[in-house]
Amino acid sequence: MSDEDSVDSTREEKADDDAVMAPEVEQSVGTESADPSIVQFGSVRVQQQPAAASTATDNIENNSNMNDNTLALDWTQLGNSTPAPAIRYPFDVADFDENETEILIVGTAGQKITHIGSDFYKQVSPQLTSLVLRSHLIKRMEGLEGLAHLNVLELYDNQVQALECLNNGADGAPGRNLRVLDISYNSIRDLAPVEFCPNLQELYIANNKLKTMAGLCNLVHLKKIDLGANRLRSMDANELANLTNLEELWLGKNKIEKIQGLDNLKKLRRLDVQSNRLEVIEGLTAVNDTLEELYLAHNGITVEGASTPTGLQLTLPKLSVLDLCRNRLTNASPMAHLTSLDELWLSGNKIATFADVSCLSKLGQSLDTIYLEYNPLQEDPLYRKRIAELLPSLTQIDANMIQGLTAHGMTPVVTASNFETEDERLLRLRDEVVERARKETDALQQQQQSNDGGEK
Fold first, then answer.
1. How many Cβ atoms from other residues are within 10 Å of residue 181's Cβ?
2. pLDDT for position 425
3. Is the pLDDT assigned to residue 20 strictly greater than 50?
4. Which of 320, 283, 282 is nearest to 304 (CA)?
5. E strand or H helix at 120, and its extent?
6. Whole-number mean pLDDT of the chain?
7. I want to staple 395 with a disulfide (CB 3.0 to 4.6 A). Which of 260, 289, 373, 406 is the partner?
8. Nearest to residue 325, comparing CAs of 369, 367, 293, 295?
9. Higher model confidence: residue 136 or residue 14?
């Protein structure tokens, strides 16, 4: 017997078993009516499925005998079937004028769009400049080819699988005129199609599945790129080489092991490489004179790794924010000369004593905020007080403002009470209560003596 014959035989046996067993089950729970094809379940009459030998004519006759209270046996399986997913287009979930030049539909506020629609550009104004479809269930970019004036396209937080439809229209529309493209929080694996957007100034494609930067090299007008939370393993020097107007580069939460490729980025002001695999700060020579904010938290950087000739040994005269939280630093010496710093973040390192941060006294006239929590140093009862004495310019230590005066544009007054711990505060309050009680007691005694003298 062949395999096919065996399968057919098994199916036939199963069908015969089902045909035999079904009536037994029905008879055990139902009451037969005059019509043997109908079983009574309380007030509901249910028609049995016809036997395999029944003809189409038999089925029609059986159906004609059913009244309004009769249900097919399949009704018991209705709850187990999976309904077909709803298909919704932009016009199904929001009302907007066909002549509007800006469309914003956020899925968190109601029903979610599943398809943009291949003829979307025919349903909206050809002068549309901004299209924002945020937090929906869109899987495909489509229907955009007729939007020659589109400057802003945002599909943030959808299910888009690929960059499509960026140059399907006349003269490369809609990509040619795009200035801002935000497709973060999707499932993009290939960045290359952004090459069809030569005039892009801002590109947000964080939280996707990118492994390379391929596609960036000719986007010479870019000022801001966010490639965070992807699967990048390197900063591709070839792709970054032509981005001479770039001001912000965000690469956090990838798998990058080395800072590189910044040689031509003469305008770079913000660099984020936090939550990667860095052990050394390097490659910053070209941006020494422009860098204002540097975020390197959650890496494996040591004091030696930070103190390199192309790293923090540079002067970095404009650097105002330095974040080195959650690294392996044992002291603050690498940044002691950075007198332009306003904010210094060193939380979660291995800084153990005040001697390890005493070198920061050089920043005492400029540093506004410092974070040192979650270091062994924080265990000292006088931690906040001693840090305040070391850096008198501070207005914030960790998450605590000094009397909150800076929020009112006022210069804070640094006193010991501003930085006392809870235990110190309680002790101070106790001493104040005792002292007040003593003074009240002395005053009562003096009054009593005065009264006694008058009576004599």
1. 23
2. 66
3. no
4. 282
5. helix 120-123
6. 83
7. 406
8. 295
9. 136
Beta strands in 12-88 (DSSP E): 31-32, 38-41, 44-47, 70-72
Pairing of strands 400-401, 396-397: antiparallel
Residues 6 or more apart from 169 whose CB is under 8 A from it?
A: 121, 144, 145, 146, 147, 148
For residue 250, list its beta bridge partners.
226, 272
Is there a contact between 269 and 247 (Cβ–Cβ < 8 Å)? yes
What is the model's pLDDT at position 156?
97
Q: In this structure, are residues 332 and 306 in contact, taking their beta carbons and an 8 Å threshold?
A: no
Sheet of 44-47: strand order equals 31-32, 38-41, 44-47, 70-72
Kindly report each contact of residues 75-81 with a partner whose C-beta sits within 8 Å and lies 24 or more positions away, as own/partner: 75/46
Buried/exposed code over 235-252 (b: 16+ C-beta within 10 A; e: otherwise): bbeebbeebebbbbbbbb
pLDDT digits (tens, 9 = 90+) for 155-213: 999 999 999 999 998 999 999 999 999 999 999 999 999 999 999 999 999 999 999 99
Residues in CB range of 98: below 8 A, 6 or more apart: 123, 124, 125
Residue 260 — very low, low, confident or very high, per pLDDT cuts 50/70/90?
very high
Instruction: Give the mean pLDDT of 44-65.
Output: 46
Contact between 394 and 413 under an 8 Å Cβ cutoff? The reply is no
Q: What pLDDT score was predicted for residue 430?
A: 76
Amino acid in position 122: K
pLDDT grade for 407, boundaries at 50, 70 and 90: very low
Residue 121 near residue 147, CB atoms below 8 Å: yes
Q: Given this model, what pLDDT does residue 27 score?
A: 39
pTM of the predicted protein model: 0.72
Asked, as a colleague might, if the bond just before 174 is cis with ω within 30 of 0, I would say: yes
Question: Alpha-carbon distance 309 to 307, whole Å?
Answer: 7
Distance of CA 413 to CAs 137, 366, 385, 422, Å?
Answer: 53, 15, 13, 20
Q: Which amino acid is at 400?
A: N
- Cα–Cα distance measured from residue 348 to residue 345, given in angstroms and rounded to the nearest whole number: 9
**Residue 386, amino acid:** R
Q: Is the dihedral of CA 444, 447, 453, 455 positive or negative?
A: negative
Structure tokens at 205: 């494609």
Express as a percent the part of the chain with pLDDT over 70: 75
